[in-house]
Amino acid sequence: MPDRAPQPVDRQLPTDEARDLISLVRDIAQREIIPSAAEEEDAGRFPREVFTLLSDSGLLGLPYDAEFGGGEQPYEVYLQVLEELAAARLTVGLGVSVHTLASYALATYGTKEQQTEHLPAMLGGGLLGAYCLSEPASGSDAASLRTKAVRDGDAWVITGTKAWITHGGIADFCTVMARTGEDGPRGITAFLVPGDAEGLSAAVPEKKMGLKGSPTAQVHLDGVRVPDARRIGDEGQGFAIALSALESGRLGIAACAIGVAQAALDAAVSYAAERRQFGKPIADFQGLRFMLADMATQIEAGRALYLTAARLRDAGLPFAKQAAMAKLHCTDTAMRVTTDAVQVLGGYGYTADFPAERYMREAKVLQIVEGTNQIQRMVIARHLVGPEER
Fold it and tell me: Do the Cβ atoms of 219 and 133 come closer than 8 Å?
């Protein structure tokens, strides 16, 4: 790679503490994440030691209450931390986003007793979470899930299979949505399941085109017994909890997407400034300059969109429409920008010697996870014109 280093993103942060957080994250990224990212992704290695460091540094519970070990940071700050981590390595940024998603149900809907017992370890005790909603036959139609939880005295027995689970097989705890009642969304309940629970197992991780360092696997629950004290919220409230969690989780995906896009732009700018053809840097050719300008503009627009949604959330205002817009726009932007970055690098962009091809492969999954971009368009349209006629 050329020696020219990219300039850090100029961030408008609300407090000195937030600025210190970003500095800490950039230091960790430079020292602990970026140097081995390409090699470890190629080898499919999950960097558990990095997540231990992030936990020890207070970065795994940023948006949650300090009372339970969280950082009590606004989403406006938390998402920019995610963006920095994803720019360094998407496996790390996405992993933090998924862990935050997995912690959401207990942090938001749990009782004070549940939060006091479990949250400190989840947010700052080195644990890693998984969010278990999707199943082999229920992805976008999540309300049709078939995993069952049957009451047995003061406990529940959970049986079923979850699919496409990030951190499947390595998570220390799982937030599991299971059917406890009637068909449809009203019969679903949320549970906090220990990662070492008897009867809980994971399949061999999926072989993916990108994001190879992040394990994605089916999770099997074969008569897993969970005390009622680990039920989160009321019986039948699980689907509402799941949707609420995903509204915030979509902002995490949007921030990760902008991180990947920013990394791709930085690589393209660095290469264009160093690569010479026809006696001058290729950055001097107007066609390429315009391409870089469009990439940068799309990234800035995406960053502004996810921050607008975050500020609505921080103010306690409705933000579901803006979250869907941010997820849609930012992930589509990541796909366009990473594809253009490969083009800027030409033949070198298609080789594993440069990171552009990895960014392009990684960007694709962000258009799919936590609600496909087709689902985001449905959500946005419902806010505009109401629900579809049945």
Answer: no
* Residue 138 or 262, more confident: 262
Q: What are phi and psi of 171, to 5 degrees?
A: -70, 145
pLDDT confidence of residue 4: 52
Crossing angle of helices 320-345/286-314, nearest 10°?
Answer: 160
Q: CB atoms < 10 A from the CB of 190, how many? A: 29
What is the tens place of the pLDDT at every residue in 253-302? 999 999 999 999 999 999 999 999 999 998 899 999 999 999 999 999 99
Nearest of 109, 205, 200, 198 to residue 165 by alpha carbon: 205
* Helical H segments across 57-157, by residue range: 75-88, 90-109, 112-124
Q: Can you tell me the distance from the alpha carbon of 290 to that of 294, in angstroms, rounded to the nearest whole number? A: 6
Alpha-carbon distance of 303 to 387, in angstroms, equals: 29
Contact 203, 220 (CB under 8 A): yes
Q: What average pLDDT does range 89-115 have in this prediction?
A: 98
Please tell me the predicted confidence (pLDDT) of residue 6: 67
Burial class, 94, CB count within 10 angstroms (exposed 0-12 / middle 13-18 / buried 19+): buried
Closest CA relative to residue 246, chosen from 184, 312, 145, 175: 175
Number of neighbouring beta carbons within 10 Å of residue 19: 13
Distances (CA, A) of 55 to 48, 121, 293: 11, 10, 37
**What value does the mean pLDDT of the chain take?**
95
> Is it the case that residue 230 has pLDDT exceeding 90?
yes
- The per-residue DSSP string of 235-268 comes to TT-HHHHHHHHHHHHHHHHHHHHHHHHHHHHHHH
Token pair in block for residue 235: 């019986």
Helix 286-314 to helix 238-274 angle, to the nearest 10 degrees?
Answer: 150
Distance CA 229, CA 115 (A): 11
d(CA 35, CA 175): 33
pTM for this prediction: 0.95
* Environment class of 184 (CB within 10 Å of its CB; exposed 0-12, middle 13-18, buried 19+): exposed
- DSSP letter assigned to residue 123: H
Task: Report the run of H or E that residue 284 belongs to, with start and end.
Answer: none
Write out the catalytic residue numbers: 370
- The C-alpha R_g of the chain, in whole angstroms, comes to 21
* Residue 66 pLDDT: 95
φ, ψ for residue 309, nearest 5 deg: -65, -40
